[in-house]
């Protein structure tokens, strides 16, 4: 179990997921980009290195929230499934202004949501990561269900997607400034 009263490092959090070696390789292959990219253009973790701050924050939120919720009642997905989604949910962000895995330089084509989804899928395939249908749904709806896909009476966003959406929104809106002149919690 990964529960701790302290925040865990990226390495420790990834150590328990099924595709840990692929995720660690993806990070290592693009370490400079991953560790220097902003988390967003201006809304959250928007400083150099903010992308890593956002990812690590999301993983830690998912780890802690999973433990809390699963103590209350059954959760229909595993901790490792949630951690994989949270690691991958914004994987295209560092590449928007840098190497896109095949074309060096800026990637203006990542400006549309559909292109970002395709890029994310390409990265997942390139690194041999196989996701469950629930994880694919979570990646699609981690930022919520757009009005264009909302259908009354249908549950578009699955349980894992709802959980991951909560983790992302907590990092991006509640703790949007953590890591930038705001100390992180004690690390373990």
How would you characterize the overall build of this protein?
The protein is an all-alpha fold and 188 residues long. It has one domain (10-174). Helices cover 49% and strands 0% of the residues. The protein is built from 8 helices and no strands. The protein has helices spanning 10-14, 20-29, 31-36, 50-72, 79-88, 113-126, 133-141, 159-174. Helix 4 (50-72) crosses helix 8 (159-174) and helix 5 crosses helix 7. The chain is globular and about 40 Å long.
Give a concise summary.
By secondary structure, the chain is mostly helical. The chain has helices at residues 10-14, 20-29, 31-36, 50-72, 79-88, 113-126, 133-141, 159-174.
List key phrases describing it:
mainly alpha; globular; single chain; 0% strand; 188 residues
| Biggest sheet layout | none
What structural class do helix, strand and pairing data support?
mainly alpha
Task: Give the low-confidence spans.
Answer: 99-105
End-to-end separation in angstroms reads: 14 Å
β-strand amount = under 5%
Number of β-strand runs:
0
Whole-number radius of gyration?
A: 16 Å
* Average pLDDT for all residues: 81
Itemize the secondary structure elements and their pairings.
Layout lengths: L9 H5 L5 H10 L1 H6 L13 H23 L6 H10 L24 H14 L6 H9 L17 H16 L14
Helix pairs in contact: 4-5, 4-8, 5-7, 5-8, 7-8
